[in-house]
Specification:
Helix content: 40-55%
Distance between the termini: 56 Å
Number of helices: 10
Shape: globular
Strand content: 15-25%
Structural class: alpha/beta
Order of helices and strands: EHEHHEHEHHEHEEHEHHEE
Number of strands: 10
Number of domains: 2
Largest sheet: 5 strands, mixed
CATH architecture of the largest domain: 3-Layer(aba) Sandwich
CATH class of the largest domain: Alpha Beta
Strand order of the largest sheet: 2-1-3-4-5
CATH topology of the largest domain: Rossmann fold
Length: 280
C-alpha cells in the first residue's frame, strides 16, 4: 500500500484508530471519515443537499435530547466527506472499512453510491471477518460490533495481513450499489443486519428489547427506578446491532408517551420505571 491509497471509515473513533494503525505500519495514507450512525435515521437521497438537511433535521427533532451540540458538527463533517469522496481521483485505490452491522454496511453502500461513476479500484475490509480470522477470543458470541471497537494494533494486523479484505469486482460492486438503492428507497428510520444483508425495519423494532433490558435492570438493582443512562447502557451493551445511544433514548421517550414506561425528572436527564398499571 502507498500514498495512492485512500481509506473510508464511518466514525471518528475508527478514523483515530486507523490513523494510529497506519502510523504503526509507517504508512502515510489518506483517510476520509463519514462520522454518522447509518443504521438510524432517513437515508433516502442523502447525497443531495436538501435530503441531507432533511436527515439532520429528523435527528434534531428526534435524537437531540442527549447531545444536541454534536449534531451541527456531524452534519458539517458528513457534508465535507461527501465532497471529498466525490473528488477522489480515479487513479487512487479506495479501501472501505466495514463490518457485519447495519451501520457500516449502510455506510458502505452510501460510499459506493458516491463512487459509482468512478473507475477506482475499490477494496473492502470487513473487520468482523478479519477479527475472527486473526484473533482468539474466549466467547465467540462477543466481539467488537463495529470497527471503532478495535484497537490500533488489531487494525494494523488486519490491514497488514489483508484479513477480511476483498477487491470488488464489477458484478459485486453492482450488487452492493443495488442493495443501497433498496435500502435508501424508503423513509424508514431503522436498519438491522440480518442474514448477511441490511433490512429496513419499523422504528419500534427494538422496543420490546428495551423493555426487557429495563426489567432486567430493575431485578439486578432491586429497585423500580432506573437511571436513564443505566437503561441506555443496558440496551447498548446487550444489543448486537449498533444504533448509538441516542436512538434508545428516543424510543424510551416514545414508550413513556405510549404508557409502557413512567418518567421521573432527575437532574439533567430523567429516571424511568415500568408502568405496572399498563398492560401491553
Amino acid at each position: 500500500m502507498n500514498q495512492q491509497t485512500i481509506h473510508i471509515v464511518f466514525s471518528q473513533a475508527a478514523h483515530g484508530s486507523l490513523r494510529m494503525a497506519l502510523s504503526n505500519l509507517n504508512l502515510q495514507e489518506d483517510l476520509i471519515s463519514l462520522p454518522d450512525t447509518f443504521s438510524i435515521g432517513p437515508v433516502s437521497k442523502i447525497d443531495e443537499e436538501s435530503e441531507l438537511k432533511n436527515r439532520y433535521q429528523w435527528m434534531k427533532d428526534h435524537l437531540s435530547f442527549l447531545f444536541p451540540e454534536d449534531l451541527p458538527e456531524m452534519e458539517n463533517q458528513v457534508r465535507q466527506a461527501v465532497l471529498d469522496i466525490r473528488a477522489i481521483p480515479d487513479d487512487r485505490t479506495v479501501v472501505i472499512w466495514t463490518g457485519d452491522n447495519a451501520h457500516e454496511q449502510t455506510g458502505l453502500g452510501f460510499a459506493l453510491h458516491l463512487l459509482k461513476d468512478k473507475g477506482n479500484e475499490i477494496k473492502v475490509i470487513n473487520t468482523t471477518t478479519g477479527y475472527h480470522q486473526l484473533f482468539v477470543h474466549d466467547d465467540p458470541e462477543r466481539f467488537p460490533r463495529k470497527m471503532g471497537g478495535l484497537d490500533p494494533e488489531q487494525l494494523s494486523r488486519i490491514y497488514k495481513e489483508h484479513a477480511g479484505a476483498v477487491v470488488l469486482q464489477m458484478k459485486e460492486r453492482e450488487r452492493l450499489e443495488n442493495e443501497w438503492k433498496k435500502i435508501s428507497a424508503t423513509q424508514k428510520v431503522l436498519r438491522v443486519w440480518e442474514n448477511d444483508s441490511v433490512r429496513n425495519v419499523d422504528a419500534d423494532y427494538f422496543d420490546d428489547f428495551i423493555l426487557e433490558c429495563i426489567q432486567r435492570s430493575q431485578r439486578e438493582q432491586g429497585s423500580d427506578i432506573i437511571i436513564l443512562m443505566r437503561a441506555i447502557g443496558e440496551v447498548v451493551g446487550h444489543l448486537e446491532e449498533y444504533i448509538g445511544d441516542e436512538y434508545p433514548e428516543y424510543r424510551i421517550r416514545q414508550l413513556i408517551k405510549a404508557g409502557q414506561l413512567e418518567m421521573r425528572e432527575s437532574g439533567m436527564y430523567y429516571d424511568v420505571k415500568m408502568n405496572t398499571g399498563n398492560s401491553k
